[in-house]
Design the sequence.
């Protein structure tokens, strides 16, 4: 029986989500036994041609070459899944979307005419059809394993779409905003990190991006009540998922 072929691709990113796959260790051995890892440069130099049954894509589209390459990958992939904040929302590099990229390149490079770049850092879904998005910066190891096994089994992955606040309640973590007045993006952020920051007394930084129907204006009003100035509220939304539409639109309303 022919094994399904898996390909892992990198665009503009830090490699963190690919490393999460490598961190699966024992589970990765089981995955490797069930699939043919045909293209994964982070793990092996061996490359097998497509078409591929599953393509995992990390990173955002930031150059004309990226834009062309993702089109080719889409053509050669039966299922294309984006992993991480860069691939699903443009990543931290989407901060460029709020500024003048030509001004940046002129200030940084002696010969900016040699720089080939796009004005924005885009999510993969802005350029090709994506079958599933896995959020996170980086993605959750457990969600990644669930994603791969579910895709191989032909079912929809069980990835929660509730807010980070639900994870806090399930773990018994006291709300840092209510108890200490600590600014937190938890109410508008999708769960997935395992309650990492609030469990250590810190507010959520929105690593997993906006949840379904997040209602950021309501949170922003509360952040203002906590004493945050408009510029601080604006910047609060501009981190790992600055390019996510819900966060980007809300941040612009505080300029």
Sequence:
């Amino acid at each position: 029986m022919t094994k399904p072929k898996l390909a892992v691709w990198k665009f503009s990113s830090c490699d963190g989500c690919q490393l999460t796959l490598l961190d699966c260790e024992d589970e990765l051995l089981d995955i490797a036994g069930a699939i043919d890892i045909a293209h994964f440069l982070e793990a092996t130099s061996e490359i097998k041609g497509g078409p591929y049954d599953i393509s995992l894509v990390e990173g955002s589209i930031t150059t004309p070459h990226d834009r062309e390459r993702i089109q080719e990958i889409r053509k050669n992939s039966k299922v294309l899944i984006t992993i991480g904040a860069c691939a699903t929302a443009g990543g931290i590099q989407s901060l460029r979307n709020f500024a003048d990229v030509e001004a940046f390149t002129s200030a940084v490079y002696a010969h900016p005419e040699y720089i080939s770049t796009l004005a924005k850092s885009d999510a993969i879904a802005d350029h090709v059809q994506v079958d599933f998005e896995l959020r996170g910066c980086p993605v959750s190891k457990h969600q990644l394993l669930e994603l791969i096994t579910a895709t191989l089994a032909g079912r929809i992955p069980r990835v929660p779409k509730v807010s980070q606040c639900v994870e806090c309640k399930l773990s018994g973590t006291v709300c840092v905003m209510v108890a200490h007045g600590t600014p937190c993006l938890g109410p508008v952020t999708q769960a997935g990190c395992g309650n990492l920051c609030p469990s250590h007394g810190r507010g959520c930084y929105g690593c997993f991006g906006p949840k379904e129907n997040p209602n950021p204006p309501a949170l922003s009003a509360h952040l203002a009540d906590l004493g945050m100035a408009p510029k601080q509220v604006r910047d609060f939304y501009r981190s790992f998922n600055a390019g996510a539409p819900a966060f980007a639109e809300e941040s612009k309303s505080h300029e």
User: Anything to note?
Assistant: The two ends are 58 Å apart (CA to CA). The chain has two domains: 5-153, 164-252. DSSP finds eleven helices and five strands in the chain.
